[in-house]
């Protein structure tokens, strides 16, 4: 069963871990909604559907033809991410009455873990960096890519609708874009005589919707991508999430906090945040992207 990080954190009695998870998901539309499947072992092998089976009409006495789907076997391995947070024992003893120093230091490290995951979620490439998992740019199938033009072009609502239709088996559950692209989308909606729908999400934050689809913003989607001769382009992603679509993979227990303890070489106590995670796309038709979005 796939659970989001927020749901998984509710199963833990570790107050510090719960606080770290809240810190990680607070400003991340991806981690707020992306479900994770817990797997035992260091990886997962699964079949990604390439061609769906067909059906036909037959007359009495006709010979029936067999049609089966075709699959490509994919193997995804968990990657190790995290970092150490050292708390100086002198500061802990003399200043902890003003602020929970341990929680503050650990939360700063948690934000670094979140930033690393979000960046890898977009641009991760296990060929360029074998220690990382593949992100959306690598997982996206070439047949699921649209472009605003040979050299890019201005965003249009028609092209955005085409991107939505590229995701099969239901509407996308998120559209992910840069802040600049969101401003362009807001301007387009306003110029068309309407506004993007706005509502509070389950975390109490204001969220915009396009055609009922949540609009997420990522600071790790570049506005300086090169398409043809243009170097001021960006990408918009649309995808479904969950088992059978785009989902995260994690080891049992998800994010972990390990209290390493006192250090030998300095007067400090170390806390380690670690996460064995990865990303899997079970069906290529559940993810699409629009490249070449210019200002």
Characterise the protein shown here.
The mean pLDDT is 87. The protein has 8 helices and 17 strands. The protein is an alpha+beta fold. The protein has helices at 5-9, 15-26, 29-33, 89-95, 101-123, 136-139, 157-166, 179-191, and strands spanning 2-3, 36-38, 43-51, 70-77, 79-88, 145-147, 153-154, 174-177, 197-200, 206-210, 213-217, 225-227, 230-239, 246-250, 256-262, 268-281, 287-294. The protein folds into 2 domains: 2-49 and 75-134 and 244-281, Major capsid protein gp5 fold (2-Layer Sandwich), CATH 3.30.2400; 140-242 and 284-294, 2-Layer Sandwich (hypothetical protein PF0899 fold). Strands 6, 7, 8, 9, 10, 11, 12, 13 and 17 form a 9-stranded mixed beta sheet that branches. Strands 1, 2, 5, 14, 15 and 16 form a 6-stranded mixed beta sheet that branches.
Question: What attributes does this structure have?
Answer:
single chain, alpha+beta, Major capsid protein gp5 fold, hypothetical protein PF0899 fold, nine-stranded mixed beta sheet, six-stranded mixed beta sheet, globular
Topology:
Layout: E1 2-3, H1 5-9, H2 15-26, H3 29-33, E2 36-38, E3 43-51, E4 70-77, E5 79-88, H4 89-95, H5 101-123, H6 136-139, E6 145-147, E7 153-154, H7 157-166, E8 174-177, H8 179-191, E9 197-200, E10 206-210, E11 213-217, E12 225-227, E13 230-239, E14 246-250, E15 256-262, E16 268-281, E17 287-294
Parallel strand pairs: 2-14, 6-17, 7-17, 8-11
Antiparallel strand pairs: 1-2, 3-4, 5-16, 8-13, 9-10, 10-11, 12-13, 13-17, 14-16, 15-16
Helix pairs in contact: 2-5
């Amino acid at each position: 069963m796939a659970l989001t990080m927020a749901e998984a954190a509710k199963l833990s009695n570790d107050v510090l871990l719960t606080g770290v998870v809240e810190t990680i998901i607070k400003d991340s539309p991806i981690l707020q909604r992306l479900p994770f499947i817990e797997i035992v072992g260091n990886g997962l092998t699964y079949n990604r559907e390439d061609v769906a089976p067909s059906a036909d009409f037959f007359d009495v006495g006709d010979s029936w033809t067999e049609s089966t789907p075709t699959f490509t076997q994919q193997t995804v391995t968990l990657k190790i991410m995290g970092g150490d947070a050292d708390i100086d024992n002198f500061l802990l003893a003399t200043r902890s009455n003003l602020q929970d120093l341990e929680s503050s230091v650990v939360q700063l490290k948690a934000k670094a873990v979140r930033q690393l995951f979000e960046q890898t979620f977009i641009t991760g490439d296990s060929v360029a960096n074998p220690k990382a998992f593949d992100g959306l740019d690598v997982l996206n199938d070439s047949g699921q890519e649209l472009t605003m033009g040979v050299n890019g072009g201005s965003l249009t609502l028609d092209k955005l609708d085409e991107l939505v239709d590229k995701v099969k088996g239901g509407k996308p559950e998120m559209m992910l874009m840069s802040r600049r692209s969101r401003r362009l989308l807001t301007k387009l909606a306003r110029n068309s005589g309407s506004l993007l729908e706005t509502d509070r999400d389950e975390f109490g934050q204001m969220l915009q919707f396009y055609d009922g689809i949540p609009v997420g913003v990522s600071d790790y989607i570049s506005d300086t991508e090169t398409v043809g001769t243009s170097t001021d382009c960006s990408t918009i992603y649309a995808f479904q999430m969950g088992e059978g679509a785009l989902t995260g993979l994690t080891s049992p227990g998800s994010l972990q906090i390990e209290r390493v303890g006192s250090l030998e070489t300095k007067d400090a106590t170390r806390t380690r945040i670690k996460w064995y995670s990865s990303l899997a796309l079970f069906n290529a038709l559940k993810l699409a992207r629009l490249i070449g979005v210019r200002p």
